[in-house]
Write a structure and sequence with these properties.
Length: 320
């Protein structure tokens, strides 16, 4: 399968940029997580092959990219920004240095506490925190917590001050990395064992393993804001909010390349779509570029609508 995708990439010209037409040089973020890299690879292909751009992917992270925009006005395009973790984002928008183009994850990033689908199928009460606390054996008497230093660790620890999981027969296991957290879910599924803990979407894990989000409590903005601080004096129970995930461009780039800014405003994925791409990549040990080819060859009707007429004509051979 991987060889087939690599062959397809060559056929559609993925590795060979088209000759520049009306579009010039473009810099775009290459963030340090999988879903953002897929967005970058898809956008890069469409810009190069459909619009004739000369695209450079710049290795980056959210704080690095925002600092660079503030100080140098580059990179031109920031593909996937989780703005709830980027306080500088709103300031750059207000100053006119950044222009918000779209919700690149149309239903937002999802964070929360989860249990496997097979646990809820056998015990529907395990879909609620109340049901879990009443019978901790349903989840194996353990909560898989975020690593130290993650924002979710602070939120979870504050909510546990209210819940007292240990007092209710649930051990809190603090993971050392995101990798061990993912491995714990995969292992539970392999053995059809109970599991209860924090995770997020879009990810390959939630693309591969059906999970049910636990009903903790209704979302309350003030409660969640307090829970997010290590200095929270009065924590409470609140669901995690859906996180806005944006694509943005510099104001100067939007003025210089309005057609590309319009293209980027059209590129958007649901969590289900992105989970599927990431799961395929993990199963096939594939790169983000190969994941982009998998998406492009499987969803021609979707991305054809992202293009203007001229780009659609250039890519007509691929769209057949």
């Amino acid at each position: 399968m991987k060889r087939l995708i690599l062959t397809t990439a060559c056929v559609v010209g993925f590795a060979a940029p088209a000759v520049a037409d009306t579009c010039g040089e473009v810099t775009i973020t290459q963030m340090d997580w999988a879903s953002a890299n897929v967005v970058t690879s898809v956008a890069k292909f469409l810009m190069e092959q459909g619009y004739g751009c000369d695209v450079t992917a710049v290795p980056s992270s959210t704080p690095t990219a925002l600092t660079s925009v503030a100080e140098t006005g580059t990179p031109d395009i920031l593909t996937e920004l989780w703005v709830n973790t980027a306080p500088a984002y709103d300031k750059l928008i207000a100053e006119g240095k950044l222009v918000e183009l779209t919700d690149v994850l149309s239903d937002g990033g999802i964070e929360g506490w989860w249990v496997p689908q097979y646990v809820v199928d056998a015990h529907p009460e395990a879909a609620t925190l109340e049901g879990i606390l009443a019978n901790p054996d349903l989840v194996g008497g353990r909560f898989d917590n975020c690593p130290d230093g993650w924002g979710c660790r602070t939120v979870n620890d504050n909510m546990n001050r209210v819940i007292d999981m240990q007092g209710n027969g649930i051990e809190v296991f603090d993971h050392g990395s995101g990798e061990t957290l993912a491995t714990a879910i995969a292992s539970a599924y392999a053995n059809k064992e109970p599991w209860f803990g924090f995770y997020w979407s879009p990810t390959a894990i939630l693309g591969k393993y059906p999970m049910v989000q636990v009903d903790i409590a209704p979302y309350e903005a003030e409660v969640h804001t307090c829970n997010s601080s290590k200095e929270c004096a009065e924590p409470g129970l609140s669901a995690y909010p859906s996180a806005a995930v944006k694509t943005a461009a510099t104001n100067s780039f939007q003025q210089r390349e309005p057609q590309i800014a319009e293209l980027m405003s059209n590129i958007s994925f649901t969590n289900e779509q992105m989970n599927g791409i990431l799961a395929w990549m993990e199963d096939n040990n594939a790169s983000a570029e190969e994941g982009a080819v998998y998406f492009l060859t499987s969803n021609k009707d979707l991305w054809a609508d992202w293009l203007n007429d001229a780009a659609r004509e250039k890519l007509s051979a691929v769209l057949k």
